[in-house]
Specification:
Structural class: alpha/beta
Number of helices: 3
Number of domains: 1
Helix content: 10-25%
Largest sheet: 4 strands, parallel
CATH superfamily: HAD superfamily/HAD-like
Shape: globular
Low-confidence stretches: none
CATH topology: Rossmann fold
Radius of gyration: 16 Å
Strand order of the largest sheet: 3-2-1-4
């Protein structure tokens, strides 16, 4: 059994192309990989600069694409915001397009976290020959 990780993921430029305050197009395999990480029992947090209506739109967009987060802009669902302490959240891994070296592909990210090469299995094609 793999260890369960808490993974914080940025929205703009990471899950979708950066078009802030609008919502950009989904980045290839972002939603599929996030869903696979959740199936693997990892806790996935949306950690974004967005707030208010822009945040609500991002959360709704993710939900429409099959992703509901463990928490949004907090370490755990029951956490209460308190201005008297740092807003850095408690996560094992942060995925952000502003990493040193830039954003890796979602396939590379999945492989780095799990050691598995293919998070998204493509359907097998029927062929008239077998090798």
């Amino acid at each position: 059994m793999k260890d369960t990780l808490t993974i914080a993921i940025d929205f703009d430029g990471t899950i979708v192309e950066d078009a802030y305050p609008k919502i950009g197009k989904p980045i290839i395999f972002a939603f599929e990989t996030i869903k696979k990480l959740q199936e693997d029992r990892h806790r996935v947090i949306l950690w974004t600069y967005r707030r208010g209506t822009a945040l609500e739109e991002a959360v709704a967009f993710c939900k429409k694409n099959g992703v509901t987060f463990y928490a949004v802009n907090m370490s755990f669902p029951e956490e209460e915001f308190d201005n008297s302490y740092s807003r850095k959240i408690n996560a094992d891994i942060f995925i952000d397009d502003r990493n040193i070296g830039g954003m890796r592909s979602w396939g590379e990210i999945y492989h780095e976290i799990t050691g598995e090469l293919n998070p998204i299995k493509s359907p097998k094609r029927k062929r008239w020959f077998n090798f």
